[in-house]
Amino acid sequence: MLYDVIVVGSGIAGLHAALFAKRAGCSVGVLTKSNPFRSNSAVASGGINAVIHMDQEDSIERHVNDTVSGADGLVDRSNVRKMCAEAPQVVADLQAIGVGFDTDASGEIAQRPFGGASANRTCYIADHTGAAIVQKLLLECRNEGVHILANQKFMGICTFKEKLSGVTVLRRRDSQVIAHACKSLVLAGGGYAGIFRGHSTNAQESSGDVIAAGLRAGLRLSNMEFVQFHPTTLATNGALISEAARGEGAYIVDETGERFTDELQTRDTLSRAITEHMREGHTVYLDFRHLSVALIDEKLPSARKMALNGAGVDITTELLPITPSAHYSIGGLWTREDTSTDLPGVFACGECAVTGVHGANRLGGNSLLEGAYFGRVAGVEAARVAKRSEFQPIDYRDVEKESRRVELILEGENLYNINAMRKNLGESLFRDAGVFRSEETLSSAMEYCHYLMGRKHGLHCLHKERENNVELASILEFDNALVIAEAMILSALKRKESRGVHYRVDYPRRDDRYFNAPSYITLLGREHLKISFERVARGNFWYKTKKALASLTG
Fold first, then answer.
1. Residue ranges making up the domain that contains 481
2. Which of 53, 87, 300, 366 has a CA between 20 and 30 Å from the CA of residue 60?
């Protein structure tokens, strides 16, 4: 198939990019490796930040300052300002397509407090905001003629003479590798917190596939050491209990009933406080019992259902055991302010991209906003490039290479248990590269990652059927997860300071002398990673000059 613009990912960033590229007059296809509703956006519960009431209570400047303060450095203040300034329009546009935000008694959009915010600015739909937004965006995309290519797993970027020509995908219904041609590509395939399997709010398929493919195609990664842990997840299975719970007044207590911390601190600080309290031998709970049943049923229905199904706890009368779990990856593909990457015609947005608005720590409610705003930017920019470009030939050696890889996994004799290896990787990362880190623990995590890399070639499908082979997808995802884990651990080892969500017990202070700069990972050869810390990203001046000249020549 040929599309002017292909978007990888069906979350809020990807659907926004697709919608705005389509509105710009392009043919658009959205690739999603499973059901379009399985994105992280669809399970983002709490809300989306925007200054709706600009008065003495709140302002755009306060939203900017809260975001910058919460980021703990490494923030792109220009991008933060643009995002915050556009936030009210983003919410208005969502309302216009039918997103039904909760309202107050006067009929205005209701807003709740979130951690790190100096005002109530989180707009919400009970505690299932992300799912409601994704549903409406998906419907709008279908209505406007965007093609949703479900159950097609993104494999890699195709180039011809160093120019983008398309993508390779695994068609899951028959395990065939095929190619789609495009003039522009938007990568919006989510993050990599799922590599912490067993200790993550993400599905296990959130293994950084898009980021790993970008690295193989020559794109830079940035800030891979920064993975945010959500402080309130079920102790039984890591399922997310939204920050909406604390925003509506739930307490964090221990077995004595003591509130030992401020529930509305930033997520990095709160996760450390809870983890440290647990290490001292305490059990930590969310306490909803002082809230009315009517409020819980109206504002927190998903939390009540999740607690009952996942932990057997009725939060109206019982304490809910919680623990921090890996939730959001701040690192990913490096982008410029217009979401462009190192490869012309390729853009990135959402959780897989580094736009600089989160710095070293993300404020709750800002991820849906970032996805919506930069998704729109990516869609507009991808359409602009597509309209000035011609299709490049697909080099079918790319397809053949991926096909051979798939056939090898399908046909070989399996030596190891893929589920055990994924779980063991997650346990290692949570223990040694989690909320607290050190040279010793990170080195241990790297050693185990390399151990698994030495055995990944013994992973093959036990079941050889080609129709929707789950084992095949799992093995491909695990291969990407190991690449991502190595990049994350290497970055964490080299950043010898504590900043935001990255806390080194052996370097407990922030060090602006040497590390007040993003980290960058590049691939040398086929498998060696190079890390650097740079205060100024290379290539921006010439990129802006060429872009300006292109606009002048029409």
1. 397-533
2. 300
The answer for residues whose C-beta is within 8 angstroms of residue 459's C-beta and 6 or more apart is: 409, 414, 415, 416, 418, 421, 475, 478
Contact 221, 331 (CB under 8 A): yes
Integer Cα distance of 284 and 289 in angstroms: 15
Share of the chain above pLDDT 70, in %: 98
The DSSP-derived string for 183-206 is EEEEE----SGGGSTTSBSS-TT-
Contact 244, 124 (CB under 8 A): yes
Q: Clarify whether residues 46 and 138 are in a common domain.
A: yes
The number of angstroms, rounded, from the C-alpha of 332 to the middle of its chain's C-alpha atoms is 8
pLDDT at position 274: 98
| Residue 300 vs residues 241, 242, 320, 408: alpha-carbon distances, Å | 10, 9, 14, 48
Length in residues, the chain: 554
Query: DSSP secondary structure string, 48-87?
Result: EE---S-BTTB-HHHHHHHHHHHHTS---HHHHHHHHHHH
Read off the pLDDT of residues 457-467 as tens digits, 9 standing for 90 and up. Answer: 999 999 999 99
Residue 538 lies in a domain: no
Q: Could you tell me if residue 547 is inside a domain?
A: no
User: What pLDDT, on a 0 to 100 scale, did the predictor assign at position 512?
Assistant: 96
pTM value is: 0.95
Active-site option among 121, 220, 267, 422 = 267
Is 397 among the residues known to form the active site?
no
